[in-house]
C-alpha cells in the first residue's frame, strides 16, 4: 500500500518558512507510518504547478493521500484533494490538521473529494486507518475520525491523547525519499511538547491539543538534536512549542543536558512573558539559546483582555528586561486590527515596543481561526 502525506501552502512562492515548510505534525505522522513498515512518502507541493503535481501523483499512484489543512491553506488543500480525486479516482483521500478538524462537517459535505477527516492528534487514528485499508478491513469504527455515510457526516469519538511522547519516533529520521522537502531546513524545527496551558481567545492550540501539556523528556529531545546535528550538520534549531518554558524544571534540565553533552548548538524558542525568570534564562543562554520569542500582542490592557492573554504590559516589560539583561535576543509577536482597537491602543503598543526594544518582531492582523473563542 502506497501512501502520500502532502502539504501545499497556497502561497505563490516558498520564501516564507512559516507557511512553506511542512507542518511538524505531518512529519510525525510520516515517521509513525514508516516505523510501522508502511510505504509512506512526504510531499511538499508548495509552489508547484498543477501539471507537476499531476505528474507526481500519476507516477506514484498512491492508494491513500493524506493532506494537511490549516486555515491559511484551506483553499489550496481542498483543490489538491480535488486534483487527487480526478487523477487517482480509486485512492482514499484523508485530511487532517486544525482547519479540517474544526470544520469537518463542512469539509465532508455533498460532492466533497475528501473521504475521511482525522480529528486532532493523528498518530493513533491514521495508523489504525492505514492498517485497516491495507488489510481491507472495515475502518468506520476507528476513533478520532469523521467520514461521510450516504448524506450524513459521522463523527466518531476522539482517540485518547498520547501520554508518552517519547514513544514517537524522531520525525527527522524518516525524511529521506521525500518529495519537494529540504531535509536540512525541515529538521531545524522541533516540537518538544503538545498542548498549551494558556487560553488565548485567538488561538486554537488548546482546543486542538488540549490544555494539559504533554512533554517529551529532556533526554529524548537532546538525542534528536544530536542525531540531526551529526547526520545533517545542522547547528541551529527552532523549538516550536507554544510555550517551551511551560515546565521550568524540564527546561533547565534540557539546558543542563545540552551543556553536559557538549552539543555546541544555537537555538530559539517561544515563551510566555510570565514563564521566564533570570535563573532559567541564564541556563538557556549557557545552553545556546540565542533568541526568545514572546507573545506580546499589544501594549494596551484593554486589547490584551479582548485577546484573553491574561498578562499586563508591566509583565511584558519585566520579561523583556530579564531577556535583555541575560544577553539573549528578544523577538516579539504583535497583533493588529483587534475589534475595538483605537488609535490610543495602537499608540500604547508603539510606546511599549519602544520601551522594551526588541531585536525584531512580527505584526499580524488578527485572524479568526475555527476552534477559537473569537
Q: Which bin fits the share of residues in helices?
A: 25-40%
Query: What structural class should be given to the helix and strand makeup?
Result: alpha/beta
Reading the helices and strands in chain order gives: EHHEHEHEHHEHEEHEEHEHEHEHEHHEHE
Radius of gyration: 21 Å
Question: What would CATH call the class of the largest domain?
Answer: Alpha Beta
Can you tell me about this structure?
The structure is a single chain. The protein has 374 residues and is α/β, with parallel strands linked by helices. It folds into 2 domains: 2-155, Rossmann fold, CATH 3.40.50; 188-365, TIM Barrel (Alpha-Beta Barrel). Helices cover 38% and strands 20% of the residues. It is built from 15 helices and 15 strands. The protein has helices at 17-20, 24-35, 50-60, 74-87, 98-102, 104-107, 123-134, 183-187, 205-209, 218-232, 248-260, 278-286, 301-306, 313-326, 343-356, and strands at 2-7, 39-44, 64-68, 92-96, 116-118, 145-149, 152-155, 189-190, 193-194, 214-215, 236-239, 266-271, 289-297, 329-336, 360-365. It has a 7-stranded mixed β-sheet, with helices on both faces. A 6-stranded parallel β-sheet has the order 8-11-12-13-14-15. Strands 9-10 form a two-stranded antiparallel sheet. α2 (24-35) packs across α7 (123-134), α11 (248-260) packs parallel to α12 (278-286) and α12 (278-286) runs parallel beside α14. It is globular. The model has no long low-confidence stretch (mean pLDDT 96).
Amino acid at each position: 500500500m502506497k501512501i502520500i502525506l502532502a502539504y501545499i501552502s497556497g502561497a505563490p512562492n516558498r520564501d516564507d518558512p512559516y507557511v512553506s515548510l511542512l507542518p511538524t505534525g505531518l512529519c510525525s505522522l510520516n515517521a509513525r507510518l514508516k516505523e510501522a513498515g508502511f510505504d509512506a512518502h512526504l510531499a511538499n507541493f508548495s509552489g508547484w504547478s498543477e501539471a507537476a503535481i499531476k505528474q507526481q501523483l500519476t507516477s506514484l499512484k498512491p492508494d491513500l493521500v493524506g493532506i494537511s489543512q490549516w486555515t491559511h491553506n484551506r483553499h489550496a488543500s481542498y483543490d489538491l484533494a480535488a486534483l487527487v480525486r480526478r487523477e487517482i479516482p480509486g485512492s482514499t483521500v484523508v485530511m487532517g490538521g486544525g482547519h479540517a478538524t474544526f470544520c469537518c462537517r463542512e469539509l465532508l459535505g455533498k460532492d466533497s473529494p475528501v473521504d475521511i477527516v482525522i480529528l486532532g492528534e493523528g498518530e493513533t487514528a491514521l495508523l489504525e486507518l492505514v492498517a485497516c485499508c491495507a488489510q481491507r478491513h472495515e475502518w468506520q469504527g476507528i476513533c478520532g475520525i469523521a467520514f461521510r455515510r450516504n448524506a450524513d457526516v459521522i463523527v466518531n469519538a476522539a482517540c485518547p491523547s498520547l501520554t508518552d511522547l517519547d514513544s514517537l519516533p524522531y520525525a527527522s529520521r524518516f525524511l529521506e525519499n521525500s518529495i519537494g522537502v529540504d531535509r536540512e531546513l525541515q529538521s531545524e524545527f522541533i516540537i518538544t511538547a503538545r498542548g498549551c496551558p494558556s487560553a488565548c481567545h485567538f488561538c486554537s492550540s488548546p482546543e486542538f491539543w488540549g490544555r494539559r501539556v504533554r512533554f517529551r523528556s529532556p533526554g529524548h529531545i537532546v538525542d534528536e538534536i544530536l542525531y540531526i546535528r551529526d547526520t545533517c550538520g545542522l547547528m541551529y534549531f527552532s523549538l516550536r512549542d507554544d510555550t517551551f518554558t511551560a515546565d521550568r524544571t524540564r527546561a533547565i534540565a534540557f539546558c543542563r543536558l545540552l551543556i553536559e553533552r557538549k552539543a555546541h548548538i544555537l537555538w530559539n524558542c517561544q515563551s510566555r512573558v510570565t514563564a521566564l525568570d533570570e535563573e532559567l534564562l541564564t541556563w538557556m543562554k549557557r545552553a545556546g539559546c540565542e533568541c526568545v520569542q514572546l507573545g506580546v500582542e499589544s501594549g494596551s490592557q484593554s486589547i490584551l483582555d479582548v485577546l484573553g492573554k491574561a498578562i499586563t504590559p508591566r509583565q511584558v516589560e519585566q520579561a523583556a528586561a530579564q531577556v535583555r539583561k541575560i544577553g539573549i535576543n528578544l523577538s516579539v509577536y504583535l497583533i493588529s486590527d483587534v475589534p475595538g482597537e483605537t488609535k490610543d491602543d495602537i499608540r500604547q503598543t508603539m510606546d511599549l515596543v519602544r520601551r522594551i526594544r526588541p531585536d525584531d518582531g512580527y505584526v499580524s492582523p488578527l485572524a479568526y481561526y475555527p476552534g477559537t473563542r473569537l
